[in-house]
From TrEMBL:
The keyword Transferase does not apply. It comes from Virgibacillus pantothenticus. The chain crosses the membrane at residues 7-25, 61-82, 89-109, 129-146, 158-177, 183-203. Pfam families: PAP2. Residues 88-200 form the Phosphatidic acid phosphatase type 2/haloperoxidase domain. Gene3D superfamilies: Phosphatidic acid phosphatase type 2/haloperoxidase (1.20.144.10). InterPro entries: PAP2/HPO, PAP2/HPO_sf. It comes from the Bacteria. Keywords: Membrane, Transmembrane, Transmembrane helix. The keyword Oxidoreductase does not apply. This is Phosphatidic acid phosphatase type 2/haloperoxidase domain-containing protein.
Length: 216
């Protein structure tokens, strides 16, 4: 059963990589996806509205100004909760890796942003959204590690739903304030989820090795 599950996870992972590469190839050839053509009008309607103002605040939860101290604090919290450095290392290094992975993809694709907003960390290339991708890993790992220490299914579900909602709001804020195309955000979610899945599996593998050290 475990072998079949591993094959299924591997298949999902490979399909995800292939779809992402095809998406990147299309953008590198300067083809504008239909989704972006259809959804540009909504953004212009939301400009200078209360919705825009709300999402302008939400987007700060994915900025480096907030996430860097947040990661440091939560790494300390995880070390204290688990009495083990592994969760803290996976969380902090996973978030850091995702940042540089995002930068590398942006340099490869070189898609221009719909607009530049330096105050919202919106400069440089557009695809994929760093806020969506990094938030998926950062807050996804927070939800994972906190849930493992909670007792009771309802508490775990509440934590997971809260952080899932936060991830969606942060990612969509980049589209609402017009510093990313919708496909940038969707790709950020997708690639971020693949990274999150990989880091969780890595943690589980390393935790199992710690619990069952090799003999002799």
């Amino acid at each position: 059963m475990k072998i079949r599950t591993s094959y299924l996870y591997g298949l999902i992972f490979m399909v995800g990589i292939v779809l992402t590469l095809l998406w990147m190839y299309k953008l590198m050839n300067q083809t504008v996806p239909y989704v972006d053509q259809w959804t540009r009008d909504l953004v212009s309607r939301l400009d200078n509205t209360e919705v825009y103002t709300m999402f302008r605040w939400i987007t700060e939860l994915g900025s480096s100004t907030f996430t860097i101290p947040f990661v440091i604090v939560m790494a300390i919290v995880f070390w204290w909760l688990y009495r083990n450095m592994l969760p803290a290392l996976i969380f902090s290094l996973g978030t850091l890796f995702t940042h540089y992975f995002n930068v590398a993809i942006k340099q490869l694709v070189e898609r221009e942003r719909p607009s530049i907003l330096i105050a919202a960390n919106a400069e440089g290339h557009s695809f994929p959204s760093g806020h969506a991708m990094i938030s998926m890993v950062c807050y996804g790992l927070v939800a994972f590690f906190l849930s493992k220490r909670l007792k009771g299914a309802k508490k775990k579900q509440l934590v997971q739903v809260f952080f899932a909602g936060l991830i969606v709001l942060i990612g969509m804020s980049r589209y609402i304030i017009n510093v990313h195309y919708l496909t940038d955000v969707l790709a950020g979610f997708f690639i971020g989820f693949l990274c999150l899945f990989g880091f969780i599996r890595l943690y589980q593998w390393l935790a199992d090795k710690q619990a069952s050290p090799s003999r002799g």
